[in-house]
Amino acid sequence: MKKLLFLILLFAPFCIQAQNNMQPYLSLEDATRISDAAEVKSKAEGWNMVIVVLDAGGHIISLRKMDGVQIGSIDVALGKAKTSVYFKRPTKVFEDMMKGEGGARIATLPNAVAIEGGLPIFKDGIIVGAIGISGASSAQDGVVAAAGLEAY
Amino acid sequence: MKKLLFLILLFAPFCIQAQNNMQPYLSLEDATRISDAAEVKSKAEGWNMVIVVLDAGGHIISLRKMDGVQIGSIDVALGKAKTSVYFKRPTKVFEDMMKGEGGARIATLPNAVAIEGGLPIFKDGIIVGAIGISGASSAQDGVVAAAGLEAY
Amino acid sequence: MKKLLFLILLFAPFCIQAQNNMQPYLSLEDATRISDAAEVKSKAEGWNMVIVVLDAGGHIISLRKMDGVQIGSIDVALGKAKTSVYFKRPTKVFEDMMKGEGGARIATLPNAVAIEGGLPIFKDGIIVGAIGISGASSAQDGVVAAAGLEAY
Amino acid sequence: MKKLLFLILLFAPFCIQAQNNMQPYLSLEDATRISDAAEVKSKAEGWNMVIVVLDAGGHIISLRKMDGVQIGSIDVALGKAKTSVYFKRPTKVFEDMMKGEGGARIATLPNAVAIEGGLPIFKDGIIVGAIGISGASSAQDGVVAAAGLEAY
Fold first, then answer.
1. pLDDT tens digit sequence for D99-117
2. I want to staple C84 with a disulfide (CB 3.0 to 4.6 A). Which of C89, C130, D66, D138 is the partner?
3. Max alpha carbon distance in chain D (Å)?
4. Contact D64 C27 (CB under 8 A)
5. Alpha-carbon distance B58 to nearest alpha carbon in chain A (angstroms)
6. Cβ contacts of residue D142 below 8 Å, gap of 6+?
7. Burial B91-125 (b: 16+ CB within 10 A, else e)
8. How high is the ipTM of this complex?
9. What is the DSSP-derived secondary structure letter of residue B107?
10. CB-CB contact of A79 with A91 (8 Å)
11. Residue of A nearest to D47 (CA)
12. Signal peptide position in this chain (chains A, B, C, D) (predicted)?
């Protein structure tokens, strides 16, 4: 019974897509709301950050870099968000996979930044984009990404 | 006398920089105000656009992509702004240079997008960044870039 | 009246998108049918070709390279299709823009291959992908691209 | 005696090539048959995948992306197949080498994706190309790659 439910959940997105050949997308309004929430959280914590939102094709909808953030964080935030769109999962999953024997193989995976701070954005089970955060510790980046996602 | 004045004007920026080893920079607040003004103008005209503001190193401070804009406009807007930072001039200058005999040589210039829509941003004669616009005709992109710059 | 109609056509795609935040997409079945039609046409003409179909984000759904085609045609076909997705227009539009004074500026446009053989694919006015063809003369590439598109 | 046999086996491929300066190659028909077999297997298992076949130079002959597969799998499948062509071995060999002390050095090997799912394709001992699969777990990707290869 549990396995059946799992299978239904697994295939649900595909069925929705297949039914009518239509898929949801992220608007600039969505991306701005998500980014605003992330910025509010990072300011509340006293962290300066780069906040990126990508669409389902991995293209930028919104990017903002707070004053004084290291410029390296721009490509890191872009890379984390791209990873989450390209692989439909949080970057932390790859970070965790790199612990333990043989985990370094993940470093050879094309387009994967294996550092917490990237989260995929789903609507009705379909990927519509991702948020990527960089500027503080990776755990802190993850906290801000989650705060952004909550606003969607 | 005229030549002397010219020399003074030419070296003025350098002198300012050299005086105290300080240079002005563009804040996220500046970039947001510039981008907001560009967005207001593009909406008033009924144009959908990508609006980019870069810092003096050519790195992104702010990017927003309005709904429905062709994804190609992201790299075009980035390229126009980069050109204006890298060469401290409007991209239209290069577009004009490409008219007439031998103008195609500009196409071999590294990091130059020779299409109107990119404008450098100066403060007290020092370059602090650039705005890049893409999404409509290049002349229309130029109008929106100018509207953004006016808000600085 | 004509201008009004033009404006309606211009904004129609955006309205459809905005209405329900949903957009159509191209399936592998669609891409295969389009590629098959292109291959049939190229064989009927005795041309060997690379046939590419991309999705709305510029990512490959289908690529096939017929025997004996120059390997350079792989990236050319990919580039033409990418251009048509990124700029929502046939690559021939850019090829034509390069004729006449100042036309070489198009060579500075990021992600643009200005050679006939790339066509965007629309569904209900929304871009869903593109076809790119390379292997024969650019006019012949365009003929095969059109034959592929007809099967959609 | 054993050593002599080894030398014969080692040089056998080279001798075949050297004999008449000819080498076998993979046709689009071959690549399609291999890809069809891989697709049949992946559908039978209920997995959605990207299926790539490259030639002996590492250039794409055939690529197909089933509906709903994460877009990251395109570059991963391409990378796995490229690795198998470039190094004439299954990608799993590199994955295994990464286990144990010092294994992470493989992550510095140019053009190596050290994750199961890439297999080289040989004809009469000569490399003619590779198959690369991505979309499910790496072990499952390997199963589908093997199923494709069996059809050659």
1. 988 999 999 999 999 999 9
2. C130
3. 55
4. no
5. 10
6. D90, D92, D116, D117, D119, D133
7. bbebbbbbeeeebbebbeeeebbbbbbbbbbbbee
8. 0.86
9. G
10. no
11. A11
12. 1-18
pLDDT in tens, B23-63: 999 999 999 999 999 999 999 999 999 999 999 999 999 99
Closest residue by Cα to residue C61 from D133, D51, B150, A10: D51
Residue A118 and residue A80 in contact, taking contact as beta carbons nearer than 8 Å: yes
C97 pLDDT more than 50? yes
In chain D, the N- to C-terminal Cα span, in Å, equals 34
User: For residue B148, what are the CA distances in angstroms to B87, B138, C57?
Assistant: 19, 15, 28
HSE value, Cβ hemisphere, 13 Å, CA-based, for B27: 4
DSSP per residue, D49-105: -EEEEEETTS-EEEEEE-TT--THHHHHHHHHHHHHHHHTS-HHHHHHHTSSTTGGG
Q: Compute chain C's Rg from CA coordinates.
A: 16
- Chain A positions in Cβ-Cβ contact with residue B74 (cut-off 8 Å): 59-60
Q: How far is CA A142 from the centre of its chain?
A: 9
- Tokens read off for B118: 């990119």
d(CA D94, CA A109): 13
Q: Which residue matches tokens 């199961």?
A: D116
Nearest-angstrom CA–CA distance, B72 and B148: 21
Q: Give the β-pairing of B60-65 and B50-55.
A: antiparallel
State the pLDDT at residue A19: 45
Residue B43's contacts (CB-CB under 8 Å, 6 or more residues apart) are: none
Q: Which domains does chain D have, with CATH numbers?
A: 23-150 (3.30.450.150)
Q: How many CB atoms lie within 10 A of CB D147?
A: 20
Distance (Å) from the alpha carbon of D3 to chain A's nearest alpha carbon: 34
CA-to-CA separations, C44 to A12, C30, C60, in angstroms, rounded:
42, 21, 25
